[in-house]
Amino acid sequence: MATTVPSSPVFISSDTLCNILTHRTLIDHFQSTLPNATTILETPIRQHYPLSPSSSLLLMPSWSSSPSLPYAGVKLVTHFPQNSARNLPGVQGTYVLFSSATGQTLAAMDSTHLTLYRTACVSGLASKYLARHDSQTLLMLGAGSLAPHLIRAHLSALPTLRKVIIWNRTLQKAQTLARELAQSGEFHGVTFDGCGCLDEVVGLGDIVSCATNSEAALVKGVRLKDGAHLDLVGSFKPEMKECDDEAIRRGRVFVDNEAALVEAGELLGAFQRGVITRDHIQGTLVDLVSGLKVGRKTSHEITVFKSVGSAVVDMLAAQFVYETYTTT
């Protein structure tokens, strides 16, 4: 995509970013660019600094000097899980994009929405390889700001989905989100329901997607149906987990990137307790997209995808937004 470099940095507002991005187009962009990008981007492990016992600051840099991706960028993010009580997003931040050829600052954009889109679209892309292609029911755990993005991404990736069940500890939040999505007019032939009893519905999910801050296992592996795909998004620290050891033991486990092996509480706990070893991890998202590893092999197996985020997909999402903005 040819771009026109502006004479001064541009600021891309959240409204503009949301007008540029759709979950379908970003999933397609990741699918076409991830294999090459991982070979040319330098992406050190993100830096994580606690601001308080419950809040943190994260820095996620990435850069490439290749003419095909001549950018350097860094995402600055704050994570304040208590913000739901303040009616504020739990994750907020800014992405700054530079030219890696000249060092020029090219753009700054809201990384709150960028993160929501890229996180959801990574899960959506993984579900194209790991979920059954006849999946009909999506169970969404959590009703926060990421939940509607994950729902849209999975629906974009798997058009066979016809029912979405939303669970939240607070039933009213689940019901409110279900009503808002049903009334949006975006989804034809898809029904939405809110639920407050997880054990009653977890076995219904062909895809079970989790976006919570839980430190106690929510999904019990024994209740997952044969052929289910479990999408774990919420945890990024050792003390966090969204499923129990049995879910990990039963599944063929893939990760978005190697950082999940040292950051995800579900995996670290399973390693420490001897439930699985690192050899149990089947591969990464890039392995799936590039064809190096086979995703779902049978209609009966359980698959698990654990994501913790990476600067690679931040860069690719920012690239897509910036190049679209400067060429339209």
Q: What's the number of structural domains?
A: 2
Enumerate the strands of the largest sheet in spatial order, edge to edge or round the barrel: 9-8-7-10-11-14-12-13
Biggest pleated-sheet summary? 8 strands, parallel
Q: Treating each run of at least 4 consecutive H or I residues as one helix, how many helices?
A: 11
Furnish the topology, listing elements before pairings:
Layout: E1 10-12, H1 14-20, H2 23-40, E2 47-50, E3 56-63, E4 71-79, E5 91-99, E6 105-110, H3 111-130, E7 137-141, H4 147-157, E8 163-167, H5 171-183, E9 191-195, H6 198-201, E10 207-210, E11 229-232, H7 245-250, E12 251-255, H8 260-263, H9 265-272, E13 281-284, H10 285-290, E14 302-306, H11 311-327
Parallel strand pairs: 1-6, 7-8, 7-10, 8-9, 10-11, 11-14, 12-13, 12-14
Antiparallel strand pairs: 2-3, 3-4, 4-5, 5-6
Helix pairs in contact: 2-3, 2-11, 3-4, 3-11
Features:
single chain; alpha/beta; ornithine cyclodeaminase, domain 1; Rossmann fold; 2 domains; six-stranded mixed sheet; 14 strands; 35% helix
Structure characterization notes:
The chain has two domains: 10-114 and 312-327, ornithine cyclodeaminase, domain 1 (2-Layer Sandwich); 125-309, NAD(P)-binding Rossmann-like Domain (Rossmann fold, 3-Layer(aba) Sandwich), CATH 3.40.50. It has eleven helices and 14 strands. It has helices at residues 14-20, 23-40, 111-130, 147-157, 171-183, 198-201, 245-250, 260-263, 265-272, 285-290, 311-327, and strands at 10-12, 47-50, 56-63, 71-79, 91-99, 105-110, 137-141, 163-167, 191-195, 207-210, 229-232, 251-255, 281-284, 302-306. It has an eight-stranded parallel β-sheet with strand order 9-8-7-10-11-14-12-13. Strand 5 and strand 6 form a beta hairpin. The N and C termini lie close together (11 Å). The model has no long low-confidence stretch (mean pLDDT 94).
